[in-house]
Amino acid sequence: MTERVCRVYPCCRAAAALVLLIAAAACGNKQLAPPPGSAQPDRFLFERGNEAMQKKQWMNARTYFQQIVDNYPQSPFRPDAKLGMGDSYLGEGSAESAVLASNEFREFLTFYPTNQRADYAQYKLAMSHFNQMRAPERDQTETREALKEFDVFFQKFPNSALTPEVKQNWRIARDRFSEASYRVGLQYYRQRWYPGAIARFREVLRDDPGFTNRDALYFYLAESLAKTDKTPEAIPYFERLIAEFDQSEYLEEAKKRLQELKNQ
After folding, report:
1. Distance CA 146, CA 170 (A)
2. Model pTM?
3. Are 131 and 169 in contact (CB under 8 A)?
4. DSSP state, 114?
5. Fewer CB within 10 Å, N- or C-terminus of the chain?
């Protein structure tokens, strides 16, 4: 009888499906809350949040962590839950979530400035900008902000175990920023406005002597100086390129140009 009615009224099946969906959602909500009578509900939420993070279920993880932050102010898990919320936003990888992550890490540093994981919060605050850095030819606001937060990390947490990892990402950010200025100088060079190129190349070298792409910087700075009749100033940059780089696309040409300038 029921089967016959459902054939006549297809809406029966749709209604049944809706009921199942509501029931599933209700079950899901129960899974996001501590079981009734739990002895340590904050621990339950924290462990489930970490499990969700490992599965990259960012929203579920954040729901667990948010309950700890909102409902258990005295919980020993509350600081880590706050960090977990920030990490869940970073995991989503969007520009909007990066802003939310930044807010979470800033709040952590405000509320828990002496917490043993304050160095982690500062690092992740920098990474919320780092992850939004744009190509060298684009606006470098996020790169600048990342470098600023990395510098705060180095000042406040010089002995942190995270320092080696932070230095690696700082170098990437610093290279991105220097590359942007270098490319402006290269554009001046190609336009044969050598004074402008020289000024920009020297600025990069002054501000970032460890610039990874400095072989190119040495080469075009030396060439710009040579083309403006500053041979004595050009020669040392060719020599530095040869001394510092065993492998470089500019190496052979630098040796050739150095010899030509010395012969002059």
Report:
1. 8
2. 0.83
3. no
4. T
5. N
